[in-house]
Write a structure and sequence with these properties.
Shape: elongated
Strand content: 5-15%
Number of domains: 3
Order of helices and strands: HEEEEEEEHHHHHHHHHHHHHHHH
Number of strands: 7
CATH topology of the largest domain: Farnesyl Diphosphate Synthase
Largest sheet: 6 strands, antiparallel, barrel
Number of helices: 17
Structural class: alpha+beta
Strand order of the largest sheet: 1-2-3-6-5-4
CATH architecture of the largest domain: Orthogonal Bundle
Radius of gyration: 29 Å
């Protein structure tokens, strides 16, 4: 460690030497330096104050480059500790302790993540010293957004709206039931989001992940000490309770066995996605579970609430949505593959090679758009739904991003964001096409076939 620190120190142009003065306050002075690797020491010549030999000193070297409007880059720091000895006109430090960080070796976000445990330990020690609790704090609103991952509720909103729109096109629509369906589905989604954090913490997957991003690695509120594991468990149970209560109300008022089956399957899949003993995502079944839960089950569930029956159309309409939401999980698992593998979480990116994962995305996204096009061309879904093909350029951007940034989690973040947008854009274009079809049927007695 010390040899590496000395080599790193030689990359810097200047150092600052600091120590605690006789009055108990810190003292600092710049110094010229040379590194002697054979001797394992640093030779110093102070340009200001006289360097002491009767106490420990800290030699600090740093470099940082500001980037206007974006922050900083090229950050690197090296610190050495020890006691100085005089050698002629120079002072010599043979360090007994060293520390350093180079952004080129460990990205800033990874370094910050690796520092979580030490930071929390420091806060606990400080709290014990002061006799009060010292912990990280964030506004309640931001904490709630992080813990529940509310921005990801688009995965629920899209299939529920499409299911309601399919029923509306067939002449079935009740606003109150539609609102209840959306709230109930969102509550279950929040429940599974929070439960995933709980079970991934218990399995060690999230603790092992030092490269989380905005879209992968969980919410991190437990790892950062913002919300306790117990409280997250209670939030999950509460959210599931709301969702199940609404689901039971809908089942009873609609007297629908089909809806009961859909609801039970949805809850079971969401719970056992990460929960033992099944842990579907640990066995490479996460994409299938997500595709079923946020595809056919949600679209059909929203449809059955309105229409009180099963038909082919909502199932067909759910297929491209199911594939695209499964691909959101699929791409988000790429940065987590090392930490997932370390705890036995055998996701598809863990099991497959880079080329296979990349090709798998392309095949799946082509299947989603092909299904959509064929279904619209045959009139199984409204023909105006072909406008959803406008999402193809976005899909190609995601594919190129995966190929280019597969091994760089933070550069891949923009691609993961576009992948979430892909699901949202295609789903909302399908929803709009249904609204257009409903409007055309209402305005025209004999609308052209291309518009129905």
């Amino acid at each position: 460690m010390d040899e590496k620190a000395l080599r790193d120190l030689s990359k810097h142009a200047h150092v600052v030497v600091s120590w605690v003065g006789d009055d108990g306050y810190p003292v600092q002075t710049p110094a010229q330096f040379t590194v002697d690797l054979e001797e394992g020491a640093v030779r110093l010549a102070a340009t200001g104050l006289v360097l002491p030999t009767d106490r420990r000193v800290n030699v600090i070297a740093s470099h940082i480059r500001p980037q206007p409007g974006t922050g900083y880059d090229q950050r690197r720091y090296t610190e050495l500790w020890g006691t100085l000895r005089r050698d002629g006109a120079e002072m010599v430090l043979a360090p007994d302790r060293s520390w350093g960080w180079d952004e080129n070796e460990v990205p800033f976000f990874e370094y910050a993540e690796r520092s979580n445990k030490r930071g929390l330990a420091y806060m606990r020690a400080l709290g014990e010293e002061r006799g009060v609790e010292v912990k990280p704090r964030l506004s309640p609103v931001w904490t709630a957004l992080l813990a529940t991952r509310l921005p990801f509720l688009t995965a629920t909103v899209v299939p529920v709206l499409v299911g309601i729109a399919v029923a509306g096109r067939q002449g079935y629509f009740d606003l109150w039931l539609a609102v209840l369906t959306l709230i109930g589905a969102a509550a279950v989604h929040i429940g599974v989001n929070v439960a995933n954090d709980v079970f991934d913490t218990l399995s060690g997957a999230d603790d092992a992940n030092v490269n989380p991003t905005q879209f992968s690695g969980g919410s991190r509120v437990i790892q950062r000490g913002l919300v306790t594991l117990k409280r997250m468990g209670l939030i999950s149970v509460g959210a599931y309770g709301v969702g199940i209560a609404i689901g039971l109300y809908l089942v009873l008022t609609r007297e629908s066995t089909e809806l009961l089956v859909i609801g039970v399957l949805g809850v079971l899949i969401s719970v056992f996605y990460t929960a033992p003993p099944l842990r579907l995502v640990h066995h490479g079944l996460g994409e299938i579970a997500v595709a079923i839960g946020f595809g056919p089950l949600m679209v059909l569930g929203a449809y059955v609430v309105q229409a009180e029956k099963f038909t082919t159309e909502p199932f067909v309409a759910s297929v491209p949505i199911a594939i695209l939401i499964a691909l959101v999980l699929y791409v988000n698992e790429i940065p987590d593959r090392r930490s997932d593998a370390a705890v036995g979480k055998r996701t598809l990116p863990v099991r497959l090679s880079r080329d296979a994962v990349t090709a798998g995305f392309l095949v799946a996204v082509c299947a989603a758009f092909a299904t959509l096009f064929v279904a619209a061309a045959l009139g199984v879904i409204p023909r105006p739904a072909v406008i959803s093909l406008l999402g193809l350029p976005l899909a190609l951007n995601v594919y190129r991003g995966i190929r280019q940034y597969y091994t760089s989690p933070y550069e891949l973040m923009a691609t993961m964001g576009k992948n979430v947008q892909l699901h949202l854009v295609v789903g909302m274009l399908m929803f709009v096409s249904y609204l257009a079809s409903i409007a055309i049927d209402g305005l025209l007695d004999d609308p052209p076939e291309l518009l129905t």
